[in-house]
Each structure stands twice: as structure tokens, then as C-alpha cells.
User: Fold this.
Amino acid sequence: MNSNTHFIGTHNSCTYEMFFDKGFGGFKFELVRTLSAMGLSSLTKKAAMTQSANLKKQLEMGCRTFDIRVSYAGEFYASHTFRCGKLVNALNTLQNHDVVVFVRPDWHNRDTVRPHEEKLLQILNKYDMKIYYEPLGKCKLGRVLPMSDMKIVWFNAKTIQEFKKKFDDFLFVAAANRPVDLSNHIISFALTPNSSFTGALSTNLKESAAETNKFATERIEILRECTGGAMPYILLDYITPDLVKQLME
Assistant:
């Protein structure tokens, strides 16, 4: 069962630091690099960044669950299409804390990870933390836990109205079967950005996070009642101290 200090986490936890001039190739990256050189990087930040607080501050707020996507370019980086900080720096910040870390290949850059998965797992196994990993192929996880042990609840909603409806439908089923143990579930309170390039540039993840985070505070007590305390891991964008406090009350 997840404790009160573990069910709150951050979605794409390392995106507070993004380098739009450093990426992994491809047309989208080259176009964004050109836009950045033209002084238009603020557009891509709105569509790619999901956190403003670094990992140390996230820990100080009370977050104990972290979602890190990885890519490879000579070494492993956290990423969200574009490069963030080094993976080992993130893991070093989190070590010595009682945390849960979900590590997955960044979908847009998964082919950069595929030939180096064994090396990635060697790195993950060095850390005495509860780390889950979603492998791309057959590989030995060691003491790293398989993401297949978890159930990811992704509503794939592009509007807050659609998100609310899908979440409430999920909550209705949970309420009908209460108490339901959701401690092996991961729920991402985040809207799905438009996948087209022009659509992505019109996306403002910080604005959408304000709506989904408010909704999370409105539903958290019902979720507690449905689970009897066996809470899912909840991943949020643009986490703040006030938001953590409201969710933990």
C-alpha cells in the first residue's frame, strides 16, 4: 500500500531543465533548434516543459514518486523529446531518499536507447532505490522492478472536459467496487498534447496543468474513500508546495 508520502509524484520530473539546441536528430528537433536560434524558444518550452521546480525542490515539497524518460546520446539523458539533464545527476539527487522512480525510454527517442539497454540497466542497478523500468526488448532487469508490475492509467484526453469525464467514469467503477486496491496503478493528471508540430506549438502545458491540478484536489478525497487508503501513484505537472499540501490534507 502506498503511504501518504509516496502517492504524490511528478510527471516528466526532469523537464525543468531543457536544452532545445541539444537533441537527438530528426526534422522536429532541427526545426525547433532553428526556432530557438530565432529567439522563439518560449513556444517550445510551453509545449515540452512540465515542471518548474528541480528535483531537490520537488523532494522538499514532499514528492516521493518520480517519472523519468530517458534517451541516449553518448550517455543517458532525461528527456521529453528534447534533452534535459544527465540521468545520473537525477538519480544521484534522488538517492538516499525513500522514493519510487519510474524510468522509461522517451517514446520519440526510444531507438537511441534500444542498443544500450544493458548499459542503462547496469546504471540503474547501482542505486539502492525502488526503480521500475519498462524495457524495449528482452533483457535482465536485475533488482530493477518491471513496469509490467504496474498498471498505467492514461486517459488520452486533449481537453479538460474530456479528462474530467474519463476520470469520473474511472472513479465511478472504483466506487462501485470499494474498497479497491489501486496501489499498483499510476494515474497521470496531464492532458495529451496535440501531436502535430503546429498543434504542439499552440500547446501550453502550464495552463492545462492548472486545470488538471485543480481537478485533482477536487477528487482526491473521493479517491481515498474508494481505495480505503490503497492509493495509486498520482503524477502531476507543474507541482507546487500548495498543491502537495492540499493533496496530503
